[in-house]
Fold these 2 entries.
Entry 1:
Amino acid sequence: MNSPTIWIIAPAVIAVLLILVRNQRALSLIGGTAAVLLAASAQFIPTEEALKVGALSFRIESSLSVLGRELLIKPEEGPLLALIFGGTALWFFGAEASKSALRFAPLGLLITALMVASIAVEPFLFAALFIEMAVLLAVPLLAGADQPPGRGVVRFLIYQTLAMPFILISGWLLAGVEVSPGNLALAGQAAAVLGLGFAFLLAIFPLYNWIPMLLEETHPFVVGFLLWIIPTITLIFGAGFIDRYSWLRTSPELTTALQFSGLLMLVTGGLWAAFQNHLGRIMAFGSIADTGFCLLALSLDLRLGIPILFLLLPARALALAVWSLSLTILREQSKTMRFGETRGLLRRFPFASAGLVLASLSTSGLPLLAGFPARLALWDALARVSLDAALWMGIGIVGLFTASFRSLAVLSMADEYTGWEVGENWLQGIMLGLGMIGLFVLGLFPQAVQFFLTDLPAMFEHLGR
Amino acid sequence: MSPLLSWTVIVLIAVTSAGILLARDWRWLIIFLSLQYVGVFLLTLQHWTLGAATVKVIAGWMSAVILGMTRSNMSEKDEGASALPQGRLFRLIAAGFVGLIAATGAPFVDSMMADAGATVSAGGMLLIGMGLLHLGVTDQPMRASIGLMTVLSGFEVIHAAVESSVLLAALLAIVNLGLALAGSYLMIASNTQETETP
């Protein structure tokens, strides 16, 4: 037995089998349970060690050879897999409530398996190909066969696909830089090509116009999942680059580029969000700003930045899950999701409206909510490096808060004599309630996730130590 | 491969990629795409074995067939009708500029990619440039898929000079087929609404 079989091939097989199931609840439960089991096993079952179950003794190898290359899941990557499958479980359990489980459960699990494969593949540059395959699988998720695809789906496909060639070429160039570290021209070319690849993958300004388009056109729950899993894996993949190449790790230009692009994402995302009149587009720009926070964390001294990055990820997963589920429920009521149509929905859909506002406030960094601890640590660390950068971060956060309070104002703007009712069904209410409690738990007790976050930097050889 | 044959392949790629850009009938699109993969195969053959290079042309042809079969089951309409800008002359001039950029950039790419070869670099750059140009003037699923496949073909030609992994060849073939399938899916989804609209 080996790790890639358990955490890549097994979920892929389950995903294929799930295609045969036509019951939303069964799909949601099977997918969610499988993801939880995979997360728990990744966290608690040691690999590369002899295990004894009764009279049976076995050992889980960490690698699997495929066509002359390797899929390798190191024992230190267990907490990361737990984070990925745990986050995926959030979406699967919410899939029934969002009424999207039929396609979402099988394709989502398959996408997750491919994303894990992208972390495991050696040479690690081939990760770009696995990410691309996941992107291709996302197309049927985003565009239902019964409705015309919007421009956002086509742009998503184009932008994410263009990333792959750049990253593969940069890998070859980086190998050249390692051989001749004095060749500054080659280093510059490699960095430029690599930067372009990640700019496409992470949807860095101005390459993020497909995100608001998608949230206007398609199912917010599905888009939320993609906005969580693709940037998360890409950030870890990017951190892997920084970990492997010492010249990249020590390059002051990289720090500047990361800080600049992070601030650009945060400020444009925050300010654009503040001026939107569409709940979906506000979520889109919120997620863009969230990616900006992650890039800013990577721009810091990596002994500090990597733990902050890992602290940002669970909060991002939970906030996006609650946000996208809330938006999905509200979208059934108001197809366009424009402010004019969503006025006063708080009194008819209290859980979904509260979930949307809390998730938005958590992304903004409101104290007591999940996003706050990581943002506070990030802002503090950034202010020690550059006060200007901290000021710009503040401007981005003000933009996000403005968008959150505008959403709250619109949702609560009901006629004076409108009565309260609960428009969500019991399952939607429970899922949103649990999600909102989770947002508070992560905000009040950030140490609740520390037991596996502390081990996460061990997956890198140099970063976070 | 003799220099004459190599440059003939470049001409073939120039003609097919320009043809894809200018063609309005989907049948011509598929024919040009299939021929383009022959050019890709011949350029890849300069660095890869016959068996490995054949993977490219077979995956490419299969992708073309997927797109063609999907399109053949749909109603007849002018594919270029909503693509902007409309003029063939404009596209031809733009293609000329791309050719010029590819010709001037090829020596630089050649030196960057471990002397991949002048024809390989020129062919790869031409395909990448024409693919990007195509992506820039259309938002139709079929054309976007073909544009992406053209860009990837150019990249594959250049990358083949420095990497000959079997796994890479297999994964790239899967990506090509996946692009065609994604394009077909989007075409079917687009067509659903058109057939439902009275």
Entry 2:
Amino acid sequence: METARLSSWQMFLLTLAFTLGTSFFIIPGGIIGNAKEYAWLIPLGAGLYGIVVAALWLYLTSRYPGLGIIQLCLKLLGPKIGFLFGCLYLVFFIQLAAWVVRNLGDFIKVNLLVHTPISAVHLMFLLVSAYTVILGAETIAMLTEFLTPVLVIVFWIVFFLMLKGWDWANFGPAQEFHPWQLMATSKQIFGFPFSETVCLTMFFPFVQQRLKTSFIAGIGVAAILISLIVFFVLGIVGVYRSSHLTYPIFTLAQELPFSFFIEHLEVIICLVWFCAISIKLSISMYSAAAGIIQLFHLKNRTFIALPLIWIILPISLLFESVISNIEWDRKYSFAFDSFYAIVIPALLVIVSWIRKKQLPDINQA
Amino acid sequence: MIMLIAFYVVYIVASTITMVRSGASVKEKTVNIALATIGGVLYASIILRHPIDTNQIIGWTIDFFIH
């Protein structure tokens, strides 16, 4: 068992970087397509949902301090059923890592390295992330602590430069506002990225103080930032065009002339995204590796992280195109993520209540 | 396919030698080989154009239980 120590600031940044990771680049186009000029409200609603779900995990882990979600499965459900549920979480972490790397591969293949095989791009990022996983949770936290503030500041400077193209007319004529219907049509954002933060429960045992505040603040700030990004994309690109773009922020940075000497700021946006994705990939790979170590009672992470590449790489190649990826996400993401974020943790909470009730009875007998 | 098999064999041999030298337990060696083999099978299924599509399996499972 690793004995890492994370500060609340590091946990906050881990949560922020993980939640923003792939989502700030991919989500805007999809939710603008669904919710039009009200799209910026969707991340706020989803963030609120993410906080409520996070409260469930925090409640569960506060009852058993020092245990991650897989250890909780083993402790509360017993070695056999707990092992089965632990394996389900492993599948989730591995799938998540594969999707993260695929999002990156699709973007690079379409926009940057058109003739390079997508598997080569995936392998490069997986190798770097595997090395981070081998070094441990503290290294991932320190990397995040070093990179995230810089990335956020750089991204927003570039984004504010883009505000030159702002036009209120881009919001178009106001449509009728049906909040529940809008939430229902954009339900995938409740799964990706807000329910995916269940991954970070694997880091909970390492946080020394103010875990609840840092984790919930991370989700809340991420929701506000995604909402702001969507709002700015709406104001600059417009409802119609941004709903037809896969990566509206990239297109925006490509097209807007900033001044007579500052050009091609999309490169900076790309770098920010690559770093954010590397952090998210490292966190999901670490969760998978830590899960395997806990399930099989192993010690060395090196020989878990490296063969994980063998599994993540082929899974990341399964989607035919970026379109099938988006389609799958729209149809199944919410249900799939909710199973791991709500169903299993709720089951664990119920079992913990039953066990607590049974214990006094046994003591009395 | 030949490249994949070659990579797989090289990985298994190299990792086993390294693990033996570093005094890894039998369980660690088994997990390492098992994970690499699962990955190898997944990759082979893609190369042979009969992919074991985990995304599709998840989709079917959700459809079965929900829709």
